[in-house]
Amino acid sequence: MAEIIDLVLLGMLAITAFNIIFIKDLFTVVMLFGIYSFLSALIFVNLDAVDVAFTEAAVGAGISTVLMLGTLALTGRKEKASSHKTILPLLVVCVTGAALIYGTLDMPLFGDPDNPAHQHVAPRYIEDSPQEIGIPNMVTSVLASYRAFDTLGETAVVFAAAIGVLSLLGLPKRDRATIQSGLKSHLVLRVVAKMIIPLIVLFALYVQFHGDYGPGGGFQAGVIAAAALILYALVFGLPMATHVVPPRVLKALAALGVLIYAGTGVVSLFLSANFLDYSVLAEDPVAGQHIGIIAIELGVGITVFAAMLCIFYAFAGQTERKNIQ
Amino acid sequence: MIEIISSVFLIVGAFFSLTGAVGIFKFPDFFTRVHAASVTDSISTILIIFGLILRTDFDLVAVKLLFILIFMLLTSPTASHALAKSARHGGLLTLAETRSDKKVGDD
Fold it and tell me: What residues make up the domain containing A58?
């Protein structure tokens, strides 16, 4: 039964991917990208990787769709016809693809229990993490403690992306735009948005602090909280949103999150342990791990929230400027 | 017994979902398609989530499913409404108006 579901989902994934390649209407393509992300989230659920599915649904289908739509508002929805010769690139792609497929022939079979990953790393985490880290969600203990350095890198990447967008587009000024924007005529939308936005923020906090016990954590929580404010900005207008969360504060928050994360590592350094080894943060090593994981998840959440909202502000500010002119 | 009732809920819900999908393909214009998608979506959400709640032990999972139901019932009709209203503002005519070639007034 699971195989049939997997096959159907993978087939739909392939159809969506081909449509994305061939359709010239960029608005449709963005929507198809959202569908693609949801389909891959379903596949991840089917593989029992709930944390990954959650991230894929929140980041891939949620926030990146909104950001791409924001870009489309600036660039227009038609793809330009390319005048390049397509033979040589096609050849390069075919050769590279063939080389990659040839490379996978040496890899162990998918789902083979004798894979190297299932021989020492996975058993080590599964057997020792309940005693060493002591939190029910093993994914979080791998992500936030054993592989904390990787996650620090990911957080820094999100931060760098926000900096890149800001240096290209710049943030909107807080009280410069006086133009009436937002959806004034959509009364139903405004009422429902008012009802839902607090619930979304509450859910984001739940995801943030429940990440030790179930699927969730800083990445998802930050994206969900940013989605709440983006909804607010879309319905009530960008000036209102920048009034609630000023861009100046966002810049500070984005840096603060990375600072909290790296600072936790430095604190553990000063307590004569390795960088990001949380066991020394409290008397009891397990309690120290809990404190460390909560601290760095908070850092991740703050940075992701601020970075996503910064990027949205930058795009929306450009659109608003274009509308004024 | 509860198992059977739950199955009936799930099957009827899946049927309504399917009719919505058929409607999107078969109906002639935008507004009828939105109607097909939204109305069947609402009823099938209610039926499927009730069917799922009957299969839980009426614990935290049931409460979470209820939360999902409330959220879906708030957002899904709102999205359809916003979609149809935006189309109307954009000047899209209904099928009847296109046929009688009537000018549409501002609503």
Answer: 1-88
